[in-house]
Amino acid sequence: MVSDPSLFDLIAADMKHFVAASADFQAPRATLLRQVSILLTPPLICCVFIRLAHRAHVKGRPRLARALALLNALIHKVEVDPASSIGPGLYIPHPTGVVFRGNAGRNLTLFSASIVGPVLHLPTAPGALAHCPTLGDNVTIGARATVVGPITVGDQSRIGPHAIVSTPVPGGTVLVALEAIGRLAPKCSGNDPVLHGGNDDAGRGNVGGHEDADFQNAIVSNPHRP
Fold it and tell me: What is the mean pLDDT of residues 36-60?
């Protein structure tokens, strides 16, 4: 779990990640006017609430932490446990439906309706996060993807939309939901470094001749693959 830098440093890092992620459709240089405008956008306001709620939790003010988290849920439709520790550079482009309970490193990206948390609902209590995922640095969770259980997702990993993950994920891995097999299969060969789990009885063929029971709901592909 990452140490807690200052609140200002966290928000500044969140803004920096926002600027980098939106460089393709906005001006690459964050002028003072643009920095002010970024702070007024829902993604940044949502992150500020998350930072304030966690800071209140760390300072031993659980009621204030829960109140800030609830207000964030009412305004942005996002649920983040105040106890969750998230490193600098949080980016939530579309907060609606995001649920997060766990720990994460730097530059975490959470897309709409992504879920990170325990397998079953747990009451807020000391030690509850031990049953939740731990994400490394530069991890991206796609829209409607689900990561559950006391697992670790390694640095530089990307979880694609609709993927369901309940087992540890090595660093640098890209997970793609099983529905994408039809698009990927024509490009695969016996020597292609693509792993997937599936159920042949359900009419889903193996991709690249590989099987891996740990990924029954996803394909694991090499992100450096041409």
Answer: 92
Q: What is the pLDDT of residue 138?
A: 97
**7-172, superfamily in CATH?**
Hexapeptide repeat proteins (2.160.10.10)
| Mean pLDDT taken over the chain | 79
Residue 121: what pLDDT?
72
- DSSP H or E segment with residue 36: helix 32-39
Q: How far apart are CA 63 and CA 77, in angstroms?
A: 20
Domain residue spans in the chain?
Answer: 7-172, 178-226
CA dihedral (11, 15, 17, 18) positive or negative: positive
pTM above 0.90, yes or no: no
Q: How many C-beta neighbours within 10 Å does residue 37 have?
A: 13
Helix (H, G, I), strand (E, B) or coil at 220: strand
Query: Nearest 5 degrees, angle CA 129-CA 144-CA 106?
Result: 50
- Give the separation between CA 172 and CA 158, rounded to whole angstroms: 8
CA 122 – CA 9 distance, rounded (Å) = 31
Q: Judge contact between 131 and 150, C-beta under 8 A.
A: yes
The pLDDT-based confidence of 26 (bands split at 50, 70, 90) is: low
Q: Which residue has the tokens 């694991």?
A: 220
User: Residue 207, exposed/middle/buried by CB under 10 A (0-12, 13-18, 19+)?
Assistant: buried
User: How many residues in the chain?
Assistant: 226
In this predicted structure, the answer to whether residue 184 has a pLDDT above a threshold of 60 is no
